[in-house]
Amino acid sequence: SQTIHQWPATLVQPVGSPLSLECTVEGTSNPNLYWYRQAAGRGLQLLFYSVGIGQISSEVPQNLSASRPQDRQFILSSKKLLLSDSGFYLCAWSTSSNQPQHFGDGTRLSIL
Amino acid sequence: KNQVEQSPQSLIILEGKNCTLQCNYTVSPFSNLRWYKQDTGRGPVSLTIMTFSENTKSNGRYTATLDADTKQSSLHITASQLSDSASYICVVLSDSRNDMRFGAGTRLTVKP
After folding, report:
1. Is residue A60 over pLDDT 90?
2. Residue B1: what pLDDT?
3. CA-atom Rg of chain B in angstroms
4. Most A CBs within 10 Å: which of B31, B91, B100, B101, as the mutation test of the A interface?
């Protein structure tokens, strides 16, 4: 069966520090991969998606970047965090854009 | 303006009662509509996915309806349980690749 792992579950970082969140998927190959942010009381916002290794599409301009160094690994990064980067970050995968997405348990990021 | 509007924003019901959540959308062209359940601090889990030709789809005590003409969907929960307490998110996928629009969700609380 397929599984998706995100870590860490929670993270507290100072403003201006770098960020690296990792997401890995097991049990499937060549998945579509997604990064979302969910602000408190708000809907999900798609940040990045990838349909293959090295292929990254950005949905909104921001202080973050994404990379896909391996087929089932998706990384969300920042060189310098801002206060506005606080939120709940979710990684998801799907077999194709028309299929349901399967989400990880998220990373709660707090910027101080 | 968000292209997916959910109502109510929050809802409190007693255990055993039924409830209906609404989703209105303006996304076009339409590909499919999805309902997700998100427990607090967890990633969303897919409940149903409906295409243009589907009017009703059930998943246990959850029944989703879709009226593509009026661009409305509902999620009906029968005989609610305490574990149904969660946010329910409506997502509409356009025919454009990976163009997903998320509702802000309905926060459901089931009380004993």
Report:
1. no
2. 56
3. 13
4. B100
